[in-house]
TrEMBL record:
<feature type="domain" description="Glycosyl hydrolase family 13 catalytic">
    <location>
        <begin position="43"/>
        <end position="534"/>
    </location>
</feature>
<protein>
    <submittedName>
        <fullName>Glycoside hydrolase family 13 protein</fullName>
    </submittedName>
</protein>
<dbReference type="Pfam" id="PF00128">
    <property type="entry name" value="Alpha-amylase"/>
</dbReference>
<keyword id="KW-0732">Signal</keyword>
<keyword id="KW-0378">Hydrolase</keyword>
<keyword id="KW-0326">Glycosidase</keyword>
<dbReference type="InterPro" id="IPR017853">
    <property type="entry name" value="GH"/>
</dbReference>
<dbReference type="GO" id="GO:0005975">
    <property type="term" value="P:carbohydrate metabolic process"/>
</dbReference>
<feature type="signal peptide">
    <location>
        <begin position="1"/>
        <end position="19"/>
    </location>
</feature>
<dbReference type="InterPro" id="IPR006047">
    <property type="entry name" value="GH13_cat_dom"/>
</dbReference>
<dbReference type="GO" id="GO:0016798">
    <property type="term" value="F:hydrolase activity, acting on glycosyl bonds"/>
</dbReference>
Length: 613
């Protein structure tokens, strides 16, 4: 055995440490982790995903926000998972639909996610994007009570967790304890990793809720609070005056979401635009401690999460994001950071992702930029694009990104903030504009027609054969439909449940109509097939793309590398098309697992994926 000097031994130990923690020491700081490029993302909204048991269901005190005067209505109870989404149950009677939406809870929790990991693995999912899990009174959880704890109702012992949290000094990480909900989440992370999957958490570092411990201290102590500089406070209450002069900035004017104070701003700050700046140092220190807690619980990065989705990222200065990236990558070199940047000028112009994707901020953004033009091509809308326009839009967006970031983009199609895909394809409106029956009485909320299903399935072929990592909003694979928020947040249509019929266009005048709702096996099978095709053909992950035909409503492109080539065909014309194939070559048709040569025949609204046998 050769004699090893001290330096050699240290290097071997360092490499072993990386291996044992599940890290990739070769991930450069400015590059996206390789695993993110092959990810099949599945986004989970925990409160509506699956109820793993009723003992931890929310109670009135868990969902009330006294500082805002938001108290659970008399007779309030958790809603039944399978009831009519547009119906009114008990305490909801004689109240508006929107008012009821705030108070509705269905009891989704972490045990429900654990119970369905096998389902997700069977579908082919490789990475979970969890909407906020932090302790908070709302259903969406962006109004944190505590950043450093999982919501008490997502775990098995809400009362015990509340008592345990009360023993901490929330400003001192040395006093933080692991609640039952925290421990169950860490179990979920272990189970996800055991299946070879990844998991990222969703956080908004831009604001907290009014029940957040530091904000509560400010409310009580006003200008004497140790945390007064954490927030954008314009004036404090004057005890010598009878009125209340306390005034502060909430995110986009929402009083229940007080903003963390921005500092060191050196460029013009405008919604929908990046700017140079940072956040209050005390809040930043707390955020970094929370980041450390979840990336490396008890100092073990292998037991921690695999990155973050960062909410309303444009609201925070680039200086903070650069520091945040340094902190994250110092703990976990192959962690993935994806930012939510969206509207430059709603509803017409999306933000430019360039400032966020140069290697010093994020690895990716939520890439609505690829979905919006694709919708206008594949769906039947009042804003149609032809194939050449789609190609130009996509190539323009990709050309603005470093090459490694193109492949790491989270290609979102629908989320908790958008209409469901089937409903988005069923309506002809401009993307995200008046996409609900409250603003547009002609907006269709019911079961889509057959043409919509066909068009959506073509889009899904494109999603899973294009550049970037595909994302699935929970329930899309079940065939769910729904208008813009709050309708995409219905409880999921699990196959083992029997659902009440759903009211159609409930807010429109006239006779009510109803739809049967439930798990759509055909839709599930289509997603599963496309996921398998992508996973079985690495060229669809890393290969280059070339558009071969982009004329009218005919689109053909290829994904290729030095050894492999996959051809993708779409016919959205009114008539059938025959595509001549390379002479003497036999192709495998990946969608139906057959062989073809000579000529490919596609009927209207058909697609094909071919690969040389």
């Amino acid at each position: 055995m050769p004699v090893m000097n001290k330096t050699t031994i240290m290097l071997i130990c360092l490499f072993a440490a990386f291996a044992s923690e599940g890290q990739n020491p070769a991930t450069p700081f400015d590059k996206a982790p390789e695993w993110s490029k092959s990810a099949i993302w599945y986004q989970i909204f925990p409160e509506r995903f699956r109820n793993g048991g009723s003992r931890n269901n929310p109670r009135p005190q868990d969902i009330s926000i006294p500082p805002m005067g938001q108290i659970a209505p008399e007779g309030w109870a958790v809603n039944q998972w399978t009831e009519d989404w547009y119906g009114q149950q008990g305490w909801e009677l004689n109240r508006s639909f929107n008012d009821n939406m705030y108070y509705r809870r269905y009891g989704g929790d972490l045990q429900g996610v654990l119970d369905k990991l096998d389902y997700l693995q069977n579908l082919g999912v490789t990475a979970l994007f969890m909407n906020p899990l932090n302790d908070a009174p709302s259903a969406h959880k962006y109004d944190a009570r505590n950043y450093h704890h999982i919501d008490v109702n997502f775990g098995p012992d809400p009362d015990g967790d509340i008592k345990l949290i009360a023993t901490e000094n929330p400003a001192d990480p040395a006093t933080w304890k692991w609640t039952a909900a925290d421990k169950l989440f860490l179990k979920l992370v272990r189970e996800v990793h055991r299946r070879g999957m990844r998991l990222i958490m969703d956080y908004s570092w831009n604001h907290t809720g009014v029940m957040f411990w530091a904000w509560q201290h400010v409310l009580k102590n006003q200008s004497q609070s140790a945390y007064k500089d954490w927030y954008e406070i314009r004036s404090f209450d004057d005890a010598n005056n009878p009125g209340n002069e306390f005034a502060y900035t909430g995110w986009v004017g929402v009083a229940s979401l007080p903003e963390i104070r921005k500092v060191d701003i050196t460029t013009h700050r405008q919604n929908g635009q990046p700017y140079e700046g940072n956040i209050n140092e005390g809040a930043k220190k707390h955020i970094f401690a929370v980041t450390q807690r979840w990336l490396a619980p008890n100092g073990k990065a292998a037991d921690g999460i695999d990155g973050f989705r960062l909410d309303v990222a444009d609201q925070i200065g680039l200086g903070f994001w650069r520091d945040f990236r340094k902190k994250v990558r110092s703990i976990k070199p192959d962690a993935y950071l994806v930012g939510e940047i969206w509207w430059d000028n709603w509803p017409d112009k999306l933000m430019d992702a360039t400032p966020y994707t140069q290697g010093d901020v994020f690895d990716a953004v939520m890439f609505y930029h690829a979905y919006r033009p694709a919708r206008y091509f594949f769906a039947k809308t009042d804003f149609p694009l032809d194939a050449a326009q789609l190609r130009n839009e996509l190539e323009h967006e990709w050309s603005r990104l470093p090459e490694d970031k193109r492949y790491a983009m989270m290609n979102v199609s629908s989320t908790h903030d958008t209409p469901r895909l089937l409903t988005d394809f069923y309506n002809a409106n401009k993307y995200k504009f008046q996409a609900n029956p409250r603003e547009n009485p002609y907006y269709r909320t019911g079961k889509p027609d057959e043409e919509t299903y066909k068009r959506l399935r073509l889009y899904l072929v494109h999603l899973f054969t294009s550049i970037g990592a595909p994302q699935i909003w929970n329930g899309e694979e079940m065939g769910m439909w729904g208008a813009d928020d709050p309708d995409p947040r219905k409880p999921l249509w699990w196959a083992d449940y029997q659902f009440a019929d759903e009211t159609r266009n409930n807010l429109q005048p006239g006779d009510k109509q109803y739809d049967q709702v439930g798990f759509n096996q055909q839709q599930f099978d289509w997603y599963k097939k496309l996921i398998a095709i992508r996973k079985d053909n690495q060229v669809l992950v890393n290969g280059k793309i070339e558009f071969i035909v982009a004329e009218g409503h005919t689109l053909v492109y290829r994904r290729y590398d030095e050894l492999n080539e996959v051809l993708v065909f779409f016919n959205l014309e009114e008539g059938a098309i025959n595509f001549p194939l390379r002479e003497g070559t036999v192709y495998k048709t990946l969608l139906n697992d057959s062989a073809i040569s000579g000529m490919l025949h596609l009927e209207p609204l058909e697609a094909a994926i071919l690969m040389k046998r």
